[in-house]
Amino acid sequence: MKHNAPAWQITFWGVVSAFCCYTCAYAFRKGITAAAFEGLVFGGINYKIWLVTLQVLGYAVAKLIGIKVVSEMQPAQRPLYLLGFVGVAALALLGFAVVPAPYNIPFFFVNGLALGMVYGVVFGFLEGRRQTDALVAGLTASFIFGSGLVKTVGLLLLQAGVSEFWMPLVVALIFTLPLLIGLWGLMQLPPPNAADRANRTERLPMNVTERKAFIKTFGFGLIAFILSFALLTAFRDFRDNFAPEILKTAGVQNAFLFTQSETIVSVLVVLLFGSLYWVKDNWKAFVIVNVLLAVGGLTVGLSTWFYQQGMLPAGVWFTLTGVGLYVAYVPCNGLYFERFVAAFRYAGTVGFMITLADWWGYLGSVSVMFYKNFGQPTISFFDFFVYASYFLSVFYLLLTFLAFRYFRKKYEATLLD
Question: Fewer CB atoms inside 10 Å of the end CB: C or N, the chain?
């Protein structure tokens, strides 16, 4: 693609490439969620719970490593890193398929460890542009849509007779070629130009001193936001990993519901956050993002209450929890910090900020997994999800408000300087 290509062309190309690349990368991680492994128990714990917990733990460790790796990564290194990550993830799935249970459980820790930095790498292709809002909307919609699509493909493979142990690898192989096409598309994007740098500030790698300075500068607000994001990530991971079990208890067994519901959510997210491109003032865009975070958290709680009152069918309720969840979750994966950095005119890389938040987010997810599976093993996945919906709605709203209040005062102070 030419460096002087029209903005609409860069936007379209970037959205399609990012959506394709990350949707397919998701297939290397989420195929396991379609399997149930009914009757398999190890150490008194359901076999699938071991797999999901180890995978999320690996993902969390990768985020910790990524705070340094992603923030210091040079643009030319991104394609090789991404190929290396998905290659190791595929080998881990192969090991899981050929090594008998329960000795194959550790392979899912390796799988999560390999994939934990993929999002930060892909985001690096997109940040710092006037079109970044639309580009990131396409990227984040990919993991919403991809989650449902991968579950559907996995269930169809199981119904066709593929073993639960081989199914995750087969799913990954199906998506390998389109992943490579998507990565090639990202490599064709021209770097941010002078107008992009003037509007969104220049994005530079951050060394350890610069990372510490950022955390010190925005301390309390950053802590409140990261805590809210940890709640959101834990809720999102639980819904994603145990959706078949939740919906089965609710009386829904349609394999295509995953793709149908998450497609609806994906379209809404793309339209909603892609439209932020038209908001040129970065602080106003940041305010709008914070309003949407609150709306998302409120939607999760209200839809659950309406469902329990018998006012919503299970499928609609599950879709609405996804709408609320991802309206809040999507901007936290790029748009929140993209507009934050631009509003405060802070030179740095959003990839570091996302990976830092992700580390704590997935640490929260691991904590919830352990609490549910070892502290509350008698509570069904369905009941735990209902309780978590109310808990998230209340405390997420509180933490989001505290973070925004702090950042607003900080921004007003910069105007007086």
Answer: C
CB atoms within 10 A of CB 9: 11
Q: Are the C-beta atoms of 327 and 340 separated by less than 8 Å?
A: no
- Please tell me the predicted confidence (pLDDT) of residue 236: 86
Model pLDDT for residues 141-196, shown as the tens digit of each residue: 787 778 778 888 998 999 999 999 999 999 999 999 999 999 999 999 988 877 76
DSSP percent split of the chain into helix, strand, coil, nearest 5: 80, 0, 20
Distance CA(69)–CA(76), nearest Å, equals: 14
Output the CA torsion sign for 408, 412, 414, 415: positive
Question: What letter represents residue 362's amino acid?
Answer: Y
The Cα 327–Cα 299 span in angstroms is 9
- Cα–Cα dist 27/354, whole Å: 21
Instruction: Compute the C-alpha angle 54/58/63, nearest 5°.
Output: 145
150 vs 177: CA distance, rounded Å: 15
Domains of the chain: 7-416 (1.20.1250.20)
Average pLDDT score, the chain: 86
Choose between 118 and 367: higher pLDDT: 118
The proportion of the chain whose per-residue pLDDT surpasses 70, expressed as a percent, equals: 93
